[in-house]
Queue: 4 jobs
Job 1
Amino acid sequence: MPTRVDIAIVGGGPVGLSLAAMLVAQGIDPNKIALLDAKPLTLAAADPRSIALSYGSHELLSKISAWPTVATPITQIHVSRRGSFGRTLIESEDYKLPALGYVCRYGDLVHALNACMAIGLHSIRPATVIRLQPRDDCAVLTLSDDIEVSASVVVHSEGGVFSEQSAKTQYRDYTQVAITSTIHATAPSAGRAYERFTSEGPLALLPQTDGYAMVWCVSPITSKRLLALDDNDFLAELQRVFGQRVGTFTRIGPRHHYPLGLNAAPHTTARTVAIGNAAQTLHPVAGQGLNLGLRDAAVLSKMLARDLSADTLTAFERQRQGDRSTTVRITDLMARVFANDSDGSVSQRLLGLSLGALDFVPPAKRLLAEQMMYGWR
């Protein structure tokens, strides 16, 4: 275990791993990089959760040879409002791209990223950081076994390792719970993802292999009721809310749930910087969180390859402000506005019609599609 490195990355999820690989690709000596995570790699690589990667993330990951071997392309995104007639359809062929994005398993992406790690890079797992001490020329990380690692720059990536020190100030509790699972149906539409807004929150079905990855956002009371149902009754409720666009739902995998909120206000010091979920935790609507974190990593790797000073970290925050704030505003607006009134209300009917109007305003539709594919550039 090294006692001194140039860059210590705390958090070995997809964003932290991507940053490590991107730093090496920028020419930084892998022996000067340490990656620390509390979770063993075998556990992370076995994680079955589904994640959505934008086309822009596909480009970033392909550059470092870290694209997962199994990833289902999204060629269409069907967006609708329950109880309203309006809908819009975003298609990759309109932008001359093979896909708008892709769906893969979290563990598959971690495995692909770890496989491209450079020889000599210090991967320290499991390792729990219990203290961070800033000094004039470095920051010192103290691990749970009292071992100390000092670094010129500490990158806080994902997780909540320093949550008590992060001083995040922009917070919103959506009073929603996301229920996730895998779903199978009798008439799946190849390559088509669905984002359906309801009075309690968005319901997303993302194509994955021969079925769908489901993210259903509902109130805490509704989540308790849904989670208490057996599989058949749960599928019946899902069918009632979603409709017959993919036929009849036939099978569901294990269900998981977690509360939703917005927490965004990156905290940077002379020796530390936050990216990914450590900088901003977003509502899952439109699947922007991980993709925003990968863009953080891409920009930071280029800047750290040139200079490790405090000025670089300040410049990084300034450069990322536009993309971060735009993505946060869009996801926050969608999460709140489309779940503001009951199904069939006048306001929600108008919102539904506005979705349909996007098909007749190509510039507005393109802006939405490009934000989802690439972020603010």
Job 2
Amino acid sequence: MRLMRVKQHYLNLIKNGQKTLEIRVGYPSIRTIQHGECIKLASRTETIVVRVKDIRKYLTLDSMLNKEDTNLIAPGLTKAQVSRLLKEIYPRHLEKLGVFVLEIQAESKN
């Protein structure tokens, strides 16, 4: 089972069902994720398993932000704040790899 790192704050939001969209860029490992796959998400202190319910690909962060519900990406932040956050994490050279939206649901808690 593949492992992806997330900050504890976001892991908590995923566990309680508030955050159901995980955004990544198209690294080779991300491009191979399949619908229905289970993935371990880990913070420094905790791991949970999520199931991928859907995968959507966009050319840019802006095109993704215009289609997806930002409250499901980073609950409590405005669209502008989510945009700034994602552009800090994924500068333009990484954004060019493609933007992948993983629609996820927590399966179990460890």
Job 3
Amino acid sequence: MRNSRKAFASLCLWVTGIVLGGCDYLTMGQPNSGGGEEEIKVARVNDKFLYANDLADIVPPDAAPDDSARIAKRYINSWIRKQLMIDEAASKIEFDEQELERKILDYRYALMVYEFEKYYVNTELQKKVTEEEIAQYYEANKDNFELKQIIIRGVFVKVPKEAPRLNKLREFMELKKDDDLEKLKSYCYRFASDFMLDRNTWVNFEELVTNTPLMSIPNKVQWLEANKFVETSDDHYLYFLKVRNYKISNEISPLEFVRDQIETIIINKRKTELATQLEKEIYEKAEKNDAFEIYGK
């Protein structure tokens, strides 16, 4: 442990030399009155010092030398900048020390409460959300799920122009036979550059056709009304799109499209309710045990 500390201190000194362009003031202190050795100074800002031990928890013990140097260098630079800002602030503004201490305590207590609430919520939270809960929330809040974009369900395939058996691909894209989808999957795994074959999944139409000739369609709503299957191309690729159905902006999102969003909303609602419940239970318990008292009522 002692050897690793010395090695770490040497590393910090080396990094500081890089940061500050020299190590004139980075010296080992003289033996102190206790017969030991003063801490190694790593950096200074006016009358404040950063010591090697201050970096002990910053750099992981198993980090590679290059990574350790990078982490230490970044921390030292950050420390210097913060201390310079603090000194500049102190020289320009007369701070009320009592008010400053009160704010520090308030922050400390708020942080303690936050960490305890997080611990309690993570311990008590029921993360499983049933399909029934999701459906109930959707039905009760449909107006909150108005679409901001066009979405579609269908199949999309992008293949190089020189791909083999293109007529077969066109045939499979029609999805007229029961096994066409499986044949289409097999073809895409072998020859396609990109594809989307889940006919039941709603996707953002703009995102799906990005970097394809379909992106330049001037009125995509009218185009979708008139086209259920399209083949187009650019210099290197062929693009096939079969639209099963679509919804446009300002319509209500289908449940499948917002399912994950609703699940997140329900879980976050549970977290808020647990935090409120915790505070209520602690207060009621303290009140019952006469743990607090308000004078002057």
Job 4
Amino acid sequence: MEHQLIEVGQNKRTIGHLLLEAGKLQPQDADQIIKAQKEYGLRFGDAAVKLGLVTKEDIVQIVSKQFDYSCLTVGDDSIDSRVITAFHAYGDDVEALRGLRSQLSLRWFAENKSLVLTAPRSGQGTSYTAANLAVLFAQLGQRTLLIDADMRSPAQHELFRIQNRLGLSDLLAKRVDLDVIQPVSKIANLSLLTSGTIPPNPLELLGHSRFEVLIQKLEEQYEVLVIDTPAMLENSDAQAMSAVTKGALLIVSKDNAKIADIEQAKQQILIAGAEPVGVVLNSVNS
């Protein structure tokens, strides 16, 4: 992955200072780097990389701090590496996801706050897309809540390495309050509502007016709600939630999708009185 190394001269907390604070450089390294800067005509970060004192990923992390942009170091196991937007500021996949964020910002979130993500069938990459989109909206500085509403086969707690004892199902059953929402500590502006206890009656919980009331409360606290749901054609959970959010985004795998299934899923969204916001062709089946 190629990264452009940049340095902001007017920022008093320079790359050099931040690298020292992070323990990536020692004070005695500075003279060596400055000498290389002059010899090769490089910026401080580029010279440090050329000398093998730091890596390109180290520089990306430091630049992210300068711009208050939440980005983890590659290899940090506090979040699953499949959440690529938490680790990489560049790359084709990240840019494609950013493009999706831009389209949703213009076409949906300009007037709405919550959106269901679903697929015609399981294994299309809904959870992957939901997790990465939630990180991207948070990186824009928007208060973002990722809701794992798949109370049959939840995945978000595994992607974000967060305990899933109590969550959405427990909220809907009035066993807990909104304190079960957990901040994602290393991603500013991002919180996660896990699926919670696996219930025997997820559809009944979602179909109850409590879900609509809950979404209304959450929309008062957050600017963006990304809702990860089960496959549209395998049960009615996503359809019930679409009736509340009034919009659903379909995720389909380029290797595992049928046109007939996509059309049927779109019809189910329309029957719920919601808008099929779009179809995302995905290459990750998780």
